[in-house]
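Re: the 83-residue chain
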Amino acid sequence: MTSLTMYSRPGCHLCDEMKAVVRRVTRDMSVSFSEVDISTDPVLEEQYGLEIPVLMVNGKKAAKYRVRDDDLIAILRGRNAIG
């Protein structure tokens, strides 16, 4: 199963936009999606603080700031996550 993780923080409008894209694109797919609030972890805040949102696909950085529906589909196809 493909695993998607989004690093974000509360109140981030770009994070909300990316989450909406992920949910829309993966609605009918067998993927797991988790969101990690970097504001609760100083190490993650240091690592991702200026780049959020960051989307990881199977543990590898796939996108940051913004992703469009078509781009996410291409990313998932490129990672063999979808047919």
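Residues 9 and 39 are 6 Å apart (CA to CA).
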